[in-house]
Amino acid sequence: MYRALYTAASGMETQQLNLDNVANNLANANTAGFRRRRLQFQDLVYQNLVSPGAAATQQTIYPAGLQIGLGARTAASEVIQLQGDFNQTGNPLDMTIQGQGFFQVQLPTGELAFTRSGAFHLDQTGIIVDAQGNQLQPAITIPASATNITIGSDGTVSVQLPGQQQAQQVGSIQLATFANPGGLSSVGNNYFLETTASGNPIVGTPGGTEGLGTILQGSLENSNVDVVGEFIQMILAQRSYEANSRVVHAADQMFQTINGLTS
Amino acid sequence: MNSGFYSAYTGFAARLDALDVIANNLANASTSGFKSQREFYRSFSAWLQPSLTTPINQAVNQFGVLGGARLDLSQGTVEPTGNDTDLALEGPGFFTVLTKNGLRYTRDGSFRLDKNRNLITDQGDQVLSEQPNRRDQPIQVPSGKMTISPDGSISVDGALVAKVRVEDFPADTQLTQEGNSYFVAPAAAVAGKPPASTTVQQGSLEKSNSDAIRTTVALIDLQRTAQTMERALAIFHNEFNRTAAQDLPKV
Fold first, then answer.
1. Same domain (yes/no): B153, B238
2. Is the ipTM reported for this complex over the cut 0.90?
3. Interface test with A, best of B31, B71, B79 (most A CBs within 10 A)
4. Could you say which of B123, B212, B230 has the minimum Cβ distance to residue A243?
5. Nearest to A73 by CA among B100, B183, B125, B30
6. What tens digit of pLDDT does each residue of B178-210 get?
7. DSSP, res B50
8. Confidence class of residue B42 from pLDDT cuts 50, 70 and 90?
């Protein structure tokens, strides 16, 4: 009897989550390396009041059944791995990945985190670290006397030392990719962690056959949030919420009518 | 007693059930691959066996009840998402999925790869392949750039890997909805090839075909009809029955 009320409530709930997701995407529109998420909805179970094809009489069957669905739910929030656009910064330690790879960063817990944000710096010992101070893996140390840092598209890091003609190679950046990057878990600070759904990281040299992509020095990848698209999502969520609240209102009025019948 | 009282009541009750159908259509306005239901009413006496013979008997037993809800299998709009593993079907047909309860059909192509690089749905169920030698096998996609052509062939870096199995059913097949955007076909149903005009679009999803305008109009219609029924009930209740019960005995 009160199905319609709960069905509409489930619709309102999913649209509210939709709006929460839009809000987070928009809030991160300027976060370098941010990956937007998209919510995926599904219908809930159905009540079979009349099964389609059930016998109406001995000779005839019901041509269409009466299945009443009980609303919608949020099934998943998928990380969208579209490339964001590049932003030239000129900073030698800013890097963009052109492809599907992730930088690997070691967290203080020893765990590896994966990030698309290529804004790196040097710490007091000359090791390449990210904005949180966590080391890029494999760790690379830049000598204090280096005058120029060059990062090749394949991740080779070389420096120019004073008094030397030849550039000296100090390390090589490796990238990681996943069978299912949509299944990574976001933990804030632009970090992703591997999960059983994402599979184990496949680590390799940039530019290889794994689809890791190549590294572009001196630029940062902007977030892949599409502001116009998010606004459209926001309008859809709002209008859909309104439509569901109309159903609540209609159901309420009809029940009111029933209660008024006895007078 | 007065059969109109029951007619009006049945009409009102049918609108209450129809409200549930409409509520579900609206709640799923953002569910990819969702197909809305269209409610229909039928006359109760038409289903009585043997049918009523005298006109007066037919008139007093003519009740309008909710006959059921038909699946509206019309195409939803296709929206680009940019994800290589998101597929949308344009035209009739369903993707075939192997669940633990057997084969299920869906138009929600928000697929992804699991850790073994098998193509799976949001529920983690495997999407099936169609190639003759690999029919009903899961689709394992090697690493590399995945392209899916309009006929459903999946290639990675130019090499053909598998073909997504798309099935269609004759128009009279009674598909039932199961939730999770899955449809169940009756055991006797014969799945066949979709028409050649059906294409698979990579990087897009089919939105719900729940039509906000139609549903809102249906909602208003339903509310107003229910009010009319209520008015009829009130007349029977207040004018006829009360007159019969209170005023007549005074005579």
1. no
2. no
3. B31
4. B212
5. B30
6. 999 999 998 888 888 888 889 999 989 999 998
7. S
8. confident
